[in-house]
Amino acid sequence: MRHITAVLALAGAAFVGAGAPLPSQGILSRLGDKAKQAANDKANQAMDSAVSKAAHAVVCAVSDNACIRKAKASGQPIKVTDASGKAVSSADSAAAISTALAQASAAAQPALDSAGGAGAPAAGAAPATNTVLVNYDFVPGDRVIFAEDFANDNIGDFPKRLELKEGNFEVAEWNGARFLRASSHGRVMIPLPEKMPQRFTYEMDFHCGDGWDGDMQFTDPDSEPDGLSHIEFSPHDGGVKGPVNSTMSLPDNAIRPVVHVAVMVDNAYVKAYLNGVRVANVPKATLGRAKGVWITVTADDGQPAYIGNIRVAEGGKPLYDALAATGHVATHGILFDVGSDHIRAESAPTLKSISDMLTAHPDLKLMIEGHTDNVGSAPSNQTLSERRAAAVKQYLVTMAHVDAARLSTKGFGASKPIAPNTTAEGRQENRRVELVKM
After folding, report:
1. Which residues, 6 or more positions from 282, have their beta carbon under 8 angstroms from its beta carbon?
2. Overall pTM > 0.90
3. Residue 411 CB contacts under 8 Å (≥ 6 apart), including other chains
4. Of the ranges 253-257, 269-273, 286-290, which is most confident?
5. What CATH topology corresponds to 319-437?
6. What CATH class is the domain 165-314?
7. β-bridge partners, 177
8. What are the residue ranges spanned by the domains of the chain?
9. Strand order through the sheet with 237-241
């Protein structure tokens, strides 16, 4: 079996190499000119290809699952738009395509309720997605440290915010979204604006070809790699290895072409998830903390590797502690289908935290606020935010049996950003459900 290795190491050190004496300046100049010409040719070819594909792309609205599935089945590129016809972000495009394909395969599988068990959802509850949520308790961090969807990079270029260390990488359109594609063995580093905190979450989408696998390692630069824990993942199984091993295989209906890798760290406690399934639960793992994330892949032109939708965030305080301190708290763990108020099943852990808080504090009343980023038209964002806030209330009333009189809802669309919408981190922060104490 061929293997792909994806090593993510938290590191702050630079690599210095020594080589043979440099050739004469004339030779270097000629070699440099040839290299530049080759790079320009490759960039032009990539741009021509992208333009050609864009011209023949099938335009589908985010909510038109039938259109998306038909385009995918025909092998045509897809341009996903909002209700007004404006192109959505690459992350939202990828999510829309994933949702459409998941719903197509869900018809042949048992229904899952919002907690991840078998059975039909209760009347009025949001229908579940086709994710097998086995022991799924992942809650994404609240404060985004780094996020990247490559929306601000040109097709065929190396992304501006990453550092190339070795190999061939370029931003590419794939399955209607943007990814970092590797066509050879290589290594990149994600520079972080600050040292990784003791409580954090890491997420990314990864595709490496059928039968290949990957390896993720968070490494302190002063530690010996052999003594550290690392995370293995593939389309079929994964987990944490060393010093304590904790792995498992994915059930058939959790296997996807693109693997969503999620890691939740609380000091030495590490949990790892693949496609909504918890594959590792290690109370004492050894991970480093630094200001960089290293990614190493092995690939070739025939089976390139794809990395996308990277998100690094600091783990948040318990909901009630944050609410008591400021009177409001933003949550990023309540997820919706793109352009929809349909709550995705991965939201169950965050929704349970809210219902537990309301049960523990019977006098607490909440205003549930929906907020969006500025992608799409203002009217559609306003309506969407109102519907999403109402959907959260409906879930808590129907599934958690919270008294409806304790909950109010309001939508603000993109009118109250908490971060600039010009960056991937800002858009991540602004897409939120906020709880306000009444």
Report:
1. 229, 240, 244, 246, 269, 270, 271
2. no
3. 369, 370, 371, 382, 383, 384, 385, 386, 387, 388, 389
4. 269-273
5. 60s Ribosomal Protein L30; Chain: A; (3.30.1330)
6. mainly beta
7. 174
8. 165-314, 319-437
9. 214-217, 230-233, 237-241, 246-249
